[in-house]
Design goal:
Blueprint lengths: L24 E7 L9 E8 L4 E8 L10 H11 L4 E6 L7 H4 L13 H13 L16 H8 L16 H11 L6 E3 L2 H11 L4 H5 L7 H14 L7 H9 L1 H17 L30
Parallel strand pairs: 1-4, 4-5
Antiparallel strand pairs: 1-2, 2-3
Helix pairs in contact: 3-4, 8-9, 9-10
């Protein structure tokens, strides 16, 4: 990989690696945007088990394309640079095609398919459509079991973009390209669900959690959320990082994505439900009740 130096103009924070807390465990979080946009952000969360402290130690936002150098390569450089002691890189988008497009034997229609994921989808479809009219058939070549599951089986209906739907397809393609170049375990995160679970465990107002992405009022919601996290000693945040995350939702969601990786490490994310197809991808999101003082 290129050893190109990251410009001094790149906005980033001080490192928590020199903290006296001792041993470090690191979690990276990446919020992607379209490959031709300059919105992708990378967050680095460091955990020091000896003192049970969590720091947002680095934040790089607006990772840009340059005339002769792609943002994709810059992302790979940054991940490599910050990967020492890293357990995982959390992505806010999928990087694998839906199962129906990955299985060579998926050559029949959904009406006669015996594929486990299609059978699961049929069962779920019939369950949720008993009282719903008109019924909307599922499309296993664009959506996954996990998107159907979180839309109906959690405390709130979380409607996520389908993995290969119109909004997500370019992001999946970019994530798949990056995945081939990275040498770190990846996990998939839905920032919307993670933020809801983290926020409700801290009694943050539901309106802040629901509207953090809005163009009007989103910055105020993000500010309130970050202040709550800091006040409850969930994570130490530098002032310049808080400002960047208030102003930039991609930076904010990169942080939430990395924080979810930490919660997975602490075994505080939801396991796959019983009977969920083994071949299907799963999204990591926190358990409903998090006792932050015991972490």
């Amino acid at each position: 990989m290129s050893k190109r130096r990251i410009p001094d103009s790149e906005r980033k924070t001080r490192s928590a690696a020199v903290s006296p807390a001792g041993e470090r465990v690191r979690f990276l979080g990446l919020a992607l945007s379209g490959g031709k946009a300059d919105k992708a952000s990378l967050a680095v969360v460091d955990y020091y088990p000896k003192h049970r402290k969590v720091f947002l130690s680095k934040l790089v936002d607006q990772i840009r394309n340059e005339p002769d150098f792609s943002a994709d390569t810059r992302i790979c450089e940054l991940v490599e640079q910050f990967s020492e002691d890293a357990v995982s890189l959390s992505l806010d988008v999928p990087w694998r095609l839906p199962t129906s497009l990955r299985h060579a034997n998926s050559r029949v229609g959904i009406e006669t398919s015996k594929e486990p994921h299609v059978l699961w989808m049929w069962e779920h479809y019939r369950k949720i459509n008993k009282k719903k009219k008109p019924k909307r058939i599922f499309t296993p070549y664009t959506e996954r079991c996990v998107e159907m599951y979180v839309a109906s089986e959690l405390e709130e209906p979380f409607i996520l973009n389908q993995a290969l739907g119109a909004n997500n397809a370019p992001l999946l393609a970019r994530a798949a390209h990056l995945e081939r170049r990275l040498k770190i375990p990846l996990i998939e995160v839905a920032p919307k669900i993670s933020l809801w679970r983290i926020g409700r465990s801290l009694n943050i107002m539901k309106s802040h959690l629901r509207f953090h992405r809005h163009a009007v009022g989103g910055d105020e919601a993000r500010k309130a959320i970050l202040e709550n996290l800091a006040q409850n000693n969930v994570v130490f945040l530098y002032a310049q990082d808080q400002k960047a995350m208030v102003e930039n939702n991609h930076a904010f969601e990169a942080f939430i994505t990395a924080l979810t990786g930490f919660l997975k490490y602490k075994k505080l994310t939801e396991p796959r439900p019983t009977g969920f197809p083994e071949d299907e991808d799963w999204i990591e999101f926190p358990v409903p009740e998090i006792r932050w003082k015991e972490i």
